[in-house]
Amino acid sequence: MKGQVSSTSWESSIIEGRLSKNLARYTLLLDKLSTLSQVDKLSEVIANDYTEQSKQLNSFVQESQSSLNKQSRKLELQRTDLTTSLTHFHETVGTIASSNTRAKAIHDDIETVDQERALVNKTLQFVKDVRTLKNNISLAHSALKANDYLVAATAIDEIRSLPDKNLIVSEFAKKVVPSSEVPEEPAILIKNWCKELTGLFQEHFMKATRTQDIKELTLMFKMFPMIGQDVLGLDLYSKYVCDIIADESRKIMSNSMENSIKFQGFFSQVLLHLFKIVSTIINDHSKVIATCYGEKHMVHVMEKVEKEADLQASLVLDIFMETRKIDRTISDINDWSHLQKTEDKSKSSNQSDNETDNEAEQSSIISIHDLALLIIEFSQILQNWSMYSRFYSVKWNEFSNLHPDVLQPPSPIAGGKFALKLEQDKIFDDFQALVLNHLHRSFKNSMSLEEMPSLNDLVTTVSLNDHDKNSYPVTSVLDDLILLVRKNLISVVNTGQFKLLSSFLNELVKFFQNQFLVKFMQNKFKLLQSKLTPNISLKKYIPKGEEQSSAYASSRSVSPPASKFSPLSRFTFRGAAASALTNIQSNLQAVVADDEDSILALHHYLVYLNSLYLNKVYVHRLLSIEILEDDSQKILKDNFPFNNEATQLQTLIGNSEKLVLEQTDKLSKWAVKYLFQNILQSKVRNLLASIFVNSISSNSSVSNQNNMSRNNSAGANQKNYIISIEDFEDLSQINSFNSKWNQLITPYKNILHKEAFVELLSNIVNYIVGTLEQRIWTLEFNELGVTKLDRELSLFIGSICGLNYNLREKFLKLTQIVLLLGLDDDSFDLSTDDIKDDFNGTFDWVITSQERIKARNMKIDRRQ
């Protein structure tokens, strides 16, 4: 319809537009009329236009009326449809209203039926419960007459379990349940029966505990919750269990007390047996308690039992402390420690270590052996407590239905009497004092009984490659120390006490640093260093009196061989010619004596070096491997289950090991450096004097006249690598060096630990590299000289470093100098004398541009 209206409006607007346009045209023509004929034409035009516009207007009117009629008919049809729909709608609304009325009536009927059914069921259940109440009262009455307490208790328990708690006091029950045989009201009757049975059960329970009638005791214990006496039953049971624990503990102590002093470990066994009893009770009796009382009531029993266990354990600990005289021992240990500190400060230089140790031992009441046994027993006591605490904590969480991510000791353990006693009586401090005293005294004894291995079988020029970690020669003190530390560490770890182990680790680090590294090892090195002479060589040690007496007997009466002392014959001693021979002989005897002492001192020095490096291996094995890395044992997790203590201890152990290794490494590097600088440096210097030095031969075929003129003044001693083809194959110098080098270094390689030898070799290589670098910068080369130097340097490095590529890296600068000397002239830029840029990028040069230019200028037969 809207479309039709729009079309009509559009057509009317067109017609109006045409009329306006024609009118404007007629007006324009009127203004231009001048003749009659023009008027006629205009009239004719107007008539034509009129006719045409009339036709269009008639057509437009007809179409509009036709369209309007169509739209009217459509509207009439739609009105008819709407009237029909409205009629149907009213009919549907009426139907729905009728259905709603019927549904409400049905719902009300159903609700009424449900209420009546619920009332019937409630009445039925009430009647059933009343019948159950009456039957159980009758049953309990008959059972009580027959003294069948289990049946009576079961009947009462069923009455108490009725869902409707008000049933027993209802008016209906009061009228229906009483009978001629049982006339009392149900509530009063049940209350009286429960009171009566409570007394009977308690009496029978106590009688069963006295007669140890386990069957009767268990029966009575099961029936307490049936009559509503759960707490009483648990209290009686807890008291019974505590009496068992106390009796067993008393029995063990009384039966074996007279032998406790002789039998080491007695008190730890007593405590272990006590905790076994408690653990067995918790495990076995928990099944009965969980069945009759409920698993949650087990916590109540555990709390009572733990109090008695704490009491008995504290009693055992007190007797242990008194019997083993711990207080007196600790007092003596403190006196001994004070005496040691005083003597360390005031010890005179002429007082021996043995005298000090003997005086210290006399001040101690307990021997080291007895002290070790005491520590073991003490450790086992704490270990038993730690294991029991873990068991108790796990069971506590199990019965409390707790599942913590981190295990924590419950309040009966953490706040119990025994745990508080350990803290308040400073039991941990006493134990640590015993351990540290044993460690210090045993170490002093070990030093006094020190044994040093012989190195004579290892002092050979034949290389020995069958060393393992246990075959290196070390002082017996190191072996004793590691065994001693391991023994005491095991005792501390087994206690399962975080405080003890963390404190012991701190003390252990101090002990290694102060007692072993400083007071023992460093003092030994300093004492031996004073006995070492620079000209000493590593050879077999032969004590006085075995082979030297005959060898040097003649030297006291005759002069030494001229060949041996030929350098001395060149000097003239003014004013002492008459006594020259006597002085030489005296000096020879002194040298012989010093040489003998120095050889032994050098042997011991190397043994102590090995001891330092093996100490690092042993400490790592003791702490990291045996405690941290042994997954099969899980030592820390098993012994320290609470509060993530195992993780914390793992960090502490790692830090302790790191500190010990760092201090050991400092001392070992210092000792190796001294050995090199004072014993080997001069020998290495002498060996280097004859290598990488070529003199100009008189018959050399080199024809560089400029070079000859520069070197005429230097003569045969000028250091040059300007050689002929005859000299090129002569490797006698480097071969001689290699032979002498092997003679010098192989005994050290056979004796020293691999890491110690590498450190020594590193010092030697650093010195060699510095010396050879200075020497090579002073040389001049021809083409053959560069090639020969390359061969000799390769053989030299291989002989010194072997397969140790870290040491080979130290020669990188020298090898790059030789490499640069061997490059063709085309590799260099003539304008700068440095290598070309495109060639420079192929190497990671460690020599600078100035050094490359200097090295190029060392070659004489190059393109100018």
Automatic annotation (TrEMBL):
<feature type="domain" description="COG4 transport protein middle alpha-helical bundle">
    <location>
        <begin position="190"/>
        <end position="526"/>
    </location>
</feature>
<dbReference type="InterPro" id="IPR013167">
    <property type="entry name" value="COG4_M"/>
</dbReference>
<keyword id="KW-0333">Golgi apparatus</keyword>
<comment type="similarity">
    <text>Belongs to the COG4 family.</text>
</comment>
<dbReference type="Pfam" id="PF08318">
    <property type="entry name" value="COG4_m"/>
</dbReference>
<dbReference type="Pfam" id="PF20663">
    <property type="entry name" value="COG4_N"/>
</dbReference>
<feature type="region of interest" description="Disordered">
    <location>
        <begin position="341"/>
        <end position="360"/>
    </location>
</feature>
<protein>
    <recommendedName>
        <fullName>Conserved oligomeric Golgi complex subunit 4</fullName>
    </recommendedName>
</protein>
<dbReference type="Pfam" id="PF20662">
    <property type="entry name" value="COG4_C"/>
</dbReference>
<dbReference type="InterPro" id="IPR048684">
    <property type="entry name" value="COG4_C"/>
</dbReference>
<dbReference type="GO" id="GO:0000139">
    <property type="term" value="C:Golgi membrane"/>
</dbReference>
<keyword id="KW-0472">Membrane</keyword>
<keyword id="KW-0813">Transport</keyword>
<dbReference type="GO" id="GO:0015031">
    <property type="term" value="P:protein transport"/>
</dbReference>
<dbReference type="InterPro" id="IPR048682">
    <property type="entry name" value="COG4"/>
</dbReference>
<dbReference type="InterPro" id="IPR048680">
    <property type="entry name" value="COG4_N"/>
</dbReference>
<keyword id="KW-0653">Protein transport</keyword>
